[in-house]
C-alpha cells in the first residue's frame, strides 16, 4: 500500500481520478463549502464526501442542496459532551433552493441513530438563544430566522416521537 501526502490549500493538489472518497473534517461549514467550490469535480457524483462541520451545519446543508449535492446519510458521533455530525454526501443531484431554517434538520439526520437526543440538545441550545434575543432585540431578520429555526427543530422532534 502506498500513501501519497501533499500540502496544499483544500483539494488543490488532488486530482479527481486519484480518489473515490474525500474527507473534510474539523472546520466550519462555510470553509467546507469553499473547498468544494474550488474543486468542482466533487460535484459530479463520482466521489463519496465525508463532511464533518464544526459550525454552520445548516448553512452547509443549504449550500450542498443549492449546488447539486445529496446528503445520503448523517451519522452522529460523540466525544465526552461534544456531539458531531458527519454527513455522507455525493454530487450529481438536482439543485434545490431550501430556506435556511429548514436546513437545520435533514431527512438523513432524522434517520440517524441518536437523532432524538441530538435534536433535544439542539432545541434547548437554539431555544435559549431565541429567548435571549427576544428579550433585547427589536424585530429583525436574525430574530425571524431564529424563530423559524426553533420551530423547524421542534417539528422534527415531534416527528420522531
Explain what this protein looks like in three dimensions.
- By secondary structure, the chain is of the alpha+beta class.
- The protein folds into 2 domains: 1-98, Vaccinia Virus protein VP39 (Rossmann fold), CATH 3.40.50; 114-161.
- The protein contains 5 helices and 4 strands; from the N terminus they run βαβαββααα.
- Strands 1-2-4-3 form a 4-stranded mixed beta sheet.
- Helix 1 (29-37) packs parallel to helix 2 and helix 4 runs antiparallel to helix 5 (141-160).
- The model has no long low-confidence stretch (mean pLDDT 93).
The topology string of helices and strands comes to: EHEHEEHHH
Beta-strand percent range = 15-25%
The first-level CATH class of the largest domain is given as Alpha Beta
Work out the helix count. Answer: 5
Write out the CATH superfamily name of the largest domain: Vaccinia Virus protein VP39
Number of domains: 2
What value does the Rg take, in angstroms?
17 Å
Q: From the coordinates shown, what is the CATH architecture of the largest domain?
A: 3-Layer(aba) Sandwich
Oligomeric state, counting identical vs distinct chains: single chain
**Total strand count, please?**
4
User: How would you write the strand order of the largest sheet?
Assistant: 1-2-4-3
**Amount of helix:** 40-55%
Largest sheet, in brief, is:
4 strands, mixed
Amino acid at each position: 500500500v502506498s500513501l501519497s501526502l501533499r500540502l496544499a490549500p483544500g483539494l488543490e493538489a488532488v486530482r479527481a481520478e486519484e480518489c473515490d472518497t474525500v474527507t473534510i473534517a474539523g472546520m466550519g461549514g462555510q470553509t467546507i463549502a469553499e473547498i468544494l467550490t474550488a474543486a468542482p469535480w466533487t460535484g459530479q457524483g463520482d466521489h463519496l464526501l465525508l463532511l464533518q462541520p464544526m459550525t454552520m451545519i445548516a448553512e452547509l446543508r443549504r449550500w450542498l442542496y443549492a449546488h447539486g449535492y445529496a446528503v445520503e446519510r448523517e451519522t452522529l458521533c460523540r466525544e465526552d459532551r461534544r456531539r458531531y455530525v458527519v454527513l455522507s454526501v455525493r454530487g450529481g443531484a438536482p439543485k434545490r433552493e431550501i430556506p435556511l431554517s429548514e436546513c437545520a434538520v435533514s431527512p438523513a439526520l432524522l434517520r440517524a441513530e441518536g437523532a432524538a437526543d441530538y435534536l433535544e440538545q439542539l432545541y434547548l441550545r437554539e431555544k435559549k438563544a431565541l429567548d435571549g434575543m427576544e428579550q433585547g432585540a427589536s424585530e429583525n431578520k436574525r430574530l425571524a430566522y431564529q424563530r423559524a429555526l426553533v420551530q423547524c427543530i421542534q417539528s422534527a422532534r415531534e416527528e420522531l416521537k
